[in-house]
C-alpha cells in the first residue's frame, strides 16, 4: 500500500493507567516502523502522561492524542482541558465526536472554537463528522466520517458508501482533506475500508480496547 494510512484508537472512557500500560506493552512491539503508517492512541486524559512515557521508553512508533479539548484558552474554566496544556503531551485531538455532540450538547460553534484552539497550540484536529452535511471548519485537514448508526453497533457502513461520503466531503470542503472512516471497524473489515481510494484510514473505538485485536487491525494494513 503506498498511500499514508492513519489508524486512530479511541478508547473513550475506558482503561485505568495500569490497563493502559499493559495495552502499550503488548501492542507497542507489534507496530511496524514504516513511514506510511501513523498509529495514534487516544486514551483518557489521566492516562496520557504514563502512556506517552511508556511509548518513549519502548521506542514504539505510536503517537498519542486527546479525545477532546477545551473551546477556551487557559484560564478560569473549571474542569476544562486547555489545548495549550494538552499540547505538552499530544500532537492530535479528536474533536466533535458524536457522543459529545449528543451527550454534552456540543455545537458547531463550540467545535469551531476547539479547532481554533488546537490550531493555536499546534495540535492536529481529527474532526468527527456524521455525514456530508456536518460543518467542517476551514483549518481542518483530517476528518473522520462516523455515521451514528455504525458507532458501537457492530453494523458498519458499507466501504462503498463510506468512500462516496469521503468523496463528497472532499468536494465540499477541499480535496486536500484526508478522510478516515469510523464505526464498528474490526480486524475483519478494516481492509475493505482501506481499499477504498478516498479513505485514508480508520478511527477504531471498541475494537481498539483489546490489545490482540488491535494488533490484528494494524497487521491488516501490511
Ligand atoms: P466503534 O466506535 O469502533 O466502537 O464503533 C468508533 C468511534 O466512536 O469512534
What coarse outline follows from CA principal-axis ratios? globular
Strands side by side in the biggest sheet: 1-2-3-4-5-6-7-8
SS elements, strand count: 8
Major sheet details: 8 strands, parallel, barrel
Mean pLDDT: 97
Please tell me how large the radius of gyration is.
16 Å
SSE order in H/E notation? EHEHEHEHHEEHEHEH
- Secondary structure class reads alpha/beta
- Which small compounds were modeled alongside the protein? 2-phosphoglycolic acid
Distance between the termini: 7 Å
- Total helical segments: 8
Bin the strand percentage: 15-25%
- Taking pLDDT < 50 over at least 5 consecutive residues as the criterion, the unreliable ranges are none
Which percent range fits the helix content? 25-40%
Quick summary of this structure?
By secondary structure, the chain is of the alpha/beta class. It is built from eight helices and eight strands; from the N terminus they run βαβαβαβααββαβαβα.
Amino acid at each position: 500500500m503506498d498511500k499514508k494510512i492513519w489508524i486512530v484508537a479511541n478508547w473513550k472512557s475506558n482503561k485505568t493507567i495500569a490497563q493502559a500500560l499493559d495495552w502499550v506493552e503488548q501492542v507497542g512491539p507489534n507496530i511496524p516502523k514504516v513511514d506510511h503508517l501513523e498509529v495514534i492512541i487516544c486514551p483518557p486524559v489521566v492516562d496520557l502522561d504514563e502512556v506517552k512515557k511508556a511509548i518513549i521508553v519502548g521506542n514504539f512508533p505510536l503517537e498519542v492524542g486527546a479525545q477532546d479539548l477545551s473551546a477556551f484558552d487557559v484560564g478560569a474554566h473549571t474542569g476544562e482541558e486547555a489545548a495549550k496544556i494538552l499540547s505538552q503531551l499530544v500532537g492530535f485531538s479528536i474533536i466533535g465526536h458524536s457522543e459529545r455532540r449528543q451527550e454534552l450538547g456540543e455545537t458547531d460553534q463550540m467545535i469551531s472554537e476547539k479547532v481554533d484552539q488546537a490550531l493555536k497550540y499546534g495540535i492536529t484536529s481529527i474532526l468527527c463528522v456524521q455525514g456530508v452535511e456536518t460543518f467542517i471548519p476551514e483549518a481542518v485537514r483530517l476528518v473522520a466520517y462516523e455515521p451514528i448508526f455504525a458507532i458501537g453497533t457492530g453494523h458498519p457502513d458499507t466501504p462503498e458508501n463510506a468512500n462516496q461520503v469521503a468523496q463528497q466531503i472532499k468536494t465540499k470542503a477541499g480535496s486536500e482533506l484526508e478522510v478516515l472512516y469510523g464505526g464498528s471497524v474490526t480486524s475483519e473489515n478494516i481492509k475493505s475500508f482501506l481499499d477504498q481510494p478516498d479513505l485514508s484510514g480508520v478511527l477504531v473505538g471498541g475494537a481498539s480496547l483489546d490489545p490482540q485485536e488491535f494488533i490484528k487491525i494494524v497487521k491488516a494494513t501490511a
